[in-house]
Amino acid sequence: MSNKRGWNVENITSANGDILNKLYSKYYKTAEKSSVTISHWAKCGSRCLVRKSGDRFIVEGFGFGTFIRPNFLRFIKYCIPLFLSRSLLNSYVSNNDIKIKGWEVIKKQNRLCMFDEVKQIIICDLLDKHEMLKQSKTIVVIGDGYGFMTCLLRLLVPQAKIICVNLGKILFFDFLHVSKVFPGTKMFLVEEKDDVDKAIEHYPIVFLEAEKYEILFNKSLDLFINVASMGEMNTDVIRTYFDIFRSSTGKRFFYSCNRVEKTLSDGTVNRFDDYPWNPDKDTIIFDELCAFYKKFPISFPPFWRSFDDPLKHRLVKLGAGISFEKSPKISL
User: Fold this and answer.
1) What's the pLDDT score for residue 8?
2) Which residue has the higher pLDDT, 52 or 149?
3) How far is the CA of 208 from the CAs of 141, 172, 237, 268, in angstroms?
4) Other C-beta atoms within 10 Å of 58: how many?
5) Residue 324, class by beta-carbon neighbours within 10 Å (0-12 exposed, 13-18 middle, 19+ buried)?
6) Which of 43, 50, 84, 150 has the fewest CB atoms below 10 angstroms from its CB?
7) Sheet hosting strand 56-60, strand order edge to edge
8) How far apart are CA 296 and CA 19, in angstroms?
9) What is the pLDDT of residue 223?
10) Percent of the chain scored above 90 by pLDDT?
11) pLDDT, tens digit, for every residue of 22-41?
């Protein structure tokens, strides 16, 4: 259900109300400042709006992907991007079960199937082709957005535990939309380091504020996924994420799909190839420019628009150990 200004009205269920209320109170009612947010995400976060009205949340996301509700007028308005997005999906995804599960998430989240949805289905198909999904007991999704990847992985790999990590303000949207796909599933918001192992053992889907990401150090984690958000992080945060990955006692696979180069607002330049990879310890499975992430469909000629910069994607088995530089300490 939608109203003017692009707001969406979402009912709160008893199964997910407590965590939603907690995230709402912390990040929207009191507007707690994030300790890991650079100016880009601070600006996006300031434009994410959440209001509470009785047993409903009235929400409007911004800056972390598209989420378009279906109705007759929107089907007409977006008919060409919808057609081209589906064509892209069929060109890259060979596993029909992954397509079916992707459509299931789209239907249950009540959204149109646009490029943002399709790219995540393609990535899951790619990971499946490299047998990443079936051998992963614990998968960490960093920067999901509307919970789409989290939901799709849960459907595709029901035996795995999924950990969804995002900035607190955006994690609200992740939890909200994951709850719509799995309304009866018990989920957990990790708040203390001692909660992590218990949460992974007892809950199929676990949520973690990126502001507390350091509590993932030295945990048994098999696969980490980040799509189009690591380039927006400052270098200290990127390094700390890599230290977390390398500290894992699990398989330590990492799939990264990010810009080749990104200039931040403070003038810092993030380069994909300059992330703290370690060629002496890391085993690269593939590393290439991302063919399906060069352009996205639009409603007017020429019907495709190129991204500002090319994106690379790499699947790698990371070696153990952390960087020689000390990782930043974040108050928990």
Assistant:
1) 67
2) 149
3) 10, 10, 16, 27
4) 16
5) exposed
6) 43
7) 8-11, 56-60, 49-53
8) 34
9) 98
10) 75
11) 999 999 887 655 556 555 55
For residues 57 and 50, give the distance between their C-alpha atoms in angstroms, rounded to a whole number: 7
Q: Is 155 left (phi over 0), alpha (psi -120 to 50) or beta?
A: alpha
- The maximal CA–CA distance of the chain, rounded, in angstroms, is 56
Q: State CA 170 to chain mean position distance.
A: 10
Cα separation, 179 vs 33, in Å, equals 25
Pick from 120, 81, 91: which is nearest to 103 by CA?
Answer: 120
CA distance 174 to 67: 12
Residues 205-225, mean pLDDT to the nearest whole number: 97
Torsion of CA 318, 321, 324, 330, to 10 degrees: 90
Of 306, 286, 262, 299, nearest in space to 131 by CA: 286
Q: d(Cα 227, Cα 83) in Å, to the nearest integer?
A: 23
Residues 210-216, mean pLDDT to the nearest whole number:
95
CA 321, CA 281: separation in Å to the nearest integer?
9
Burial 136-166 (b: 16+ CB within 10 A, else e): bebbbbbbbbbbbbbbbbbbbbeebbbbbbb
Question: pLDDT tens digit string along 309-328?
Answer: 999 999 999 999 865 444 44
Higher pLDDT, 308 or 332: 308
Identify the band that residue 56 occupies on the pLDDT scale cut at 50, 70 and 90: confident
Asked whether 225 and 130 are in contact (CB, 8 A), the reply is: no
Higher pLDDT, 231 or 7: 231
User: Is 124 within 8 Å of 149 (Cβ atoms)?
Assistant: yes
User: Which residues partner with 254 through β-bridges?
Assistant: 224, 316
Angstrom CA distances, 256 to 15, 36, 69, 297, stand at 33, 19, 28, 23
* Tokens found for residue 17: 């109300």
Cα-based angle 5, 35, 207 (whole degrees, multiple of 5): 70
Q: Are 24 and 168 in contact (CB under 8 A)?
A: no
Integer Cα distance of 297 and 226 in angstroms: 22
